[in-house]
């Protein structure tokens, strides 16, 4: 496999921004009632998820003090060791900053899709970067290992471990005084939650709490930027989705755990003075992406001549997504890191109010899934064998559309990559990364 450039991209068509329509409530009693209901709902969601986690079966084996497994998760990787002088030297070297003004960032989920891109972007500009990933088997771990090798060539060390390992996190914060934490580790996927619900609570709720516990006691406390999701908008029918819209109607357990994460972030900000920024991603795609995403497995199946299933709304209407190219998301993430204010706590105690933010990171241009398939057909020069079916009740929503006016104002976020341009870059990467793909040589000759 030839060495691939993770961040290579060219200028493209700007996204279209639509102004939001802010509702105006005339009666204070109605506002008080709505807020009370939202507070009760949010408390119930968090309590339910923690209860579900406590009921999940424990791991069959007890890990040794310095060997950690990814407890309770059915697709765990094998235990790995950490600690020792050589290990600490690797950790320190990876997190070393080019200058005093640079950042020192712990990136959870660094071998993941977004995590790998963010890690490389930060390292290239001189920031200290240390990765943390459990390399679970939710999707092909060989792809994660390939990302790991790419980051190692750039000087980024990924510690193999789990965010639920409190001892490991304490050790990392003892070795490196991180200025920021980029929290991208999560159990992803809407549909898989119906098969393995406890894995979502383990990662997205318990894991997030464990990480924030480590952050609150660290000295200095780092600023935290983490990946929420557009899924929190759930059954909200008002578009485009604004950060001010209601998020108390999750359509999936995945969405509920991300909503719980936002409430947990609020608590740790309020009690301990942690500076926390949540980013709601909208259908991120691109090179080195996740195989469980439609654009990825559509490409794979079209090339193999297999039938693909395309969903339509129950009433026959279109299903559309606000597809957002990875390079645009990375720019937004770096903007959030660069504008994050310092946490205000010390020794686990809050000294003054700290920054708490939530932003949408989307493309503002929803595209029907049928158009996604048409673009792939043109790029691959292969006609897809399509089976159009009604969208099942598995947690997916019909439509996503981001209002990014707040991110544009506060982060300077301006997506520039249209779906055609982004998919062309993805297909080029896919055919190079999977050398056995059909029609590879003919396609590459046309570039």
Automatic annotation (TrEMBL):
Tree of life domain: Eukaryota
Domain NAD-dependent epimerase/dehydratase span(s) in chain numbering: 105-341
InterPro entries in UniProt: Epimerase_deHydtase (IPR001509), NAD(P)-bd_dom_sf (IPR036291)
Enzyme class (EC, first level): isomerase
Cited SUPFAM superfamilies: NAD(P)-binding Rossmann-fold domains (SSF51735)
Membrane topology summary: Multi-pass membrane protein
Any one GO MF annotation of this record: UDP-glucuronate 4-epimerase activity
GO annotations of cellular component type: Golgi cisterna membrane
Keywords for the protein's UniProt record, in alphabetical order: Isomerase, Membrane, NAD, Transmembrane, Transmembrane helix
Pfam families xrefs: Epimerase
Coiled-coil region: none
Entry EC no(s): 5.1.3.6
Annotated catalysed reactions: UDP-alpha-D-glucuronate = UDP-alpha-D-galacturonate
Residues covered by region (Disordered): 1-23, 62-85
Transmembrane segment boundaries: 38-56, 103-122
Subcellular location: Golgi apparatus, Golgi stack membrane
Ranges of biased composition (kind: Polar residues): 71-83
UniProt family annotation: Belongs to the NAD(P)-dependent epimerase/dehydratase family.
Quaternary structure note: Homodimer.
Protein name in the entry: UDP-glucuronate 4-epimerase
């Amino acid at each position: 496999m030839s060495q691939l450039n993770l961040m290579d991209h060219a200028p493209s068509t700007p996204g279209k921004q639509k102004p939001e329509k802010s509702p105006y409530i005339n009666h204070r009693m109605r506002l008080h009632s709505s807020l009370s209901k939202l507070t009760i709902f949010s408390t119930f969601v968090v309590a339910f998820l923690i209860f579900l986690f406590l009921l999940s079966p424990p791991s069959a084996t007890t890990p040794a003090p310095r060997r950690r497994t990814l407890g309770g998760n059915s697709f765990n990787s094998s235990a790995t060791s950490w600690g020792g002088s050589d290990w600490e030297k690797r950790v320190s070297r990876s997190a070393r900053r080019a200058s005093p003004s640079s950042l020192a960032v712990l990136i959870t989920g660094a071998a993941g899709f977004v995590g790998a891109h963010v890690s490389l972007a930060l390292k290239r500009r001189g920031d200290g970067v240390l990765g943390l990933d459990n390399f679970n088997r939710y999707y092909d771990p060989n792809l994660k290992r390939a990302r790991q090798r790419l980051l190692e060539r750039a000087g980024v060390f990924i510690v193999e471990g789990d965010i639920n390992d409190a001892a490991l996190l304490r050790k990392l914060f003892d070795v490196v005084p991180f200025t920021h934490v980029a929290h991208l580790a999560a159990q992803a996927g809407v549909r898989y939650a119906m098969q393995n619900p406890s894995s979502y609570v383990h990662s997205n709720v318990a894991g997030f709490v464990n990480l924030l516990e480590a952050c609150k006691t660290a000295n200095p406390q780092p600023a935290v930027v983490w990946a929420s999701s557009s899924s929190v908008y759930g059954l909200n029918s008002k578009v485009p989705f604004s950060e001010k819209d209601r998020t108390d109607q999750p359509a999936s357990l995945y969405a509920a755990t991300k909503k719980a994460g936002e409430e947990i972030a609020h608590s740790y900000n309020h009690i301990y003075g942690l500076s926390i920024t949540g980013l709601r991603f909208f259908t991120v795609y691109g090179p080195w992406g996740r195989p469980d995403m439609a654009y990825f497995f559509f490409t794979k199946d079209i090339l193999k001549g297999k039938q693909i299933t395309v969903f339509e709304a129950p009433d026959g209407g279109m299903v559309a997504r606000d597809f957002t190219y990875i390079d645009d998301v990375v720019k937004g993430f770096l903007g959030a890191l660069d504008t994050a204010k310092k946490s205000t706590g010390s020794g686990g105690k809050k000294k003054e109010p700290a920054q708490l933010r939530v932003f949408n990171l989307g493309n503002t241009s929803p595209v029907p899934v049928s158009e996604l398939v048409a673009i792939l057909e043109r790029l691959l020069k292969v006609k897809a064998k399509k089976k159009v079916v009604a969208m099942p009740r598995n947690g997916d929503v019909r439509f996503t559309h981001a209002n990014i006016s707040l991110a544009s104002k506060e982060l300077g976020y301006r997506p520039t990559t249209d779906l055609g341009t982004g998919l062309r870059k993805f297909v080029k990467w896919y055919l190079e990364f999977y050398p056995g793909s059909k029609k590879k040589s003919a396609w590459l000759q046309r570039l």
